[in-house]
Amino acid sequence: MQILITGATGGLGAAVLSNLHALLPPTSTLIASSSRPATGPSFTARGISFRHADYSDPATLRAAFTSIDKLLFVSSSTFDNDLRTIQHRNVIEAAKAAGVGHVYYTSLAFGGYTDSSQMSVMAAHLATEAMLRASGLRFTSVREGTYAEAFPLFLDWYPETEVVQLPADGPMAFVSREELGEATAKLMFSGQFDGQEVVLLTGPRTLTLREVTEIVAEETGRPVRMEIVEGGEDYVRRKAEGDVGRKPELFFRSRITWYEGIEKGDGGTVSGTLKEVLGREPTDGGEVIRGLLRESKGQYTWHQNYMPV
Asked: Strand pairing partners for 292?
């Protein structure tokens, strides 16, 4: 059996790769892929094969997917939904052309098991699931819960932040990214859920963004508080003026739908599947956040909260 992991240099892809490397017997071949060929030696040094796969270059995808039985299709990291949809179409068409046996797509858990979420961040994921369905490929969409590690992005919090300004609040089932990687690897290895189009992996309970802010205040010992900013335009104006991460107005404007969805409960579905797959209780999302803040001495940051220089 040949298994290929896309996005193997990213956080989730790397976690899935490491866990599969430990699980697979010698008769199986594990292959890492990346859009950056220079990363290849870092994998081959660990006994993991490497193939170049660039979502914007269909020829590299067709070559990479040749003779692949199971493919982990890690969603593109761009926030540009139009570009993400194009890239994802390239992946699906290449997988179809190469005759990939089963595709595991890393979607998001907003909306739970439904397709009803209107959050802009879910749009391309739902479109990708629809393309997979139409392709005729065997696939499983693994709707990964919200990373606890990404809490600064949802609060727009930086170590120097004292007032977290958001347009709305709601429950979110935060979950450890490392445990998502472990569970996704076990799903691929066991084939336990291969008959389901959608598998939902979430944390064991929900936290509101206000509760997360309170955790930040407790762990840092700083007077951090949350403030609801009424009116979307006021929120966009306030956040776009002097954002520490240099994110543009368009970014904050697109986030209004995030908070509308969160307020409606799109992030609040709790599933027991993660516990079932891991074979143990998942780590509480709040404890993950506390651990990150303690380890960093209150200086924790998340890369997506900053625009590239």
From this structure: none
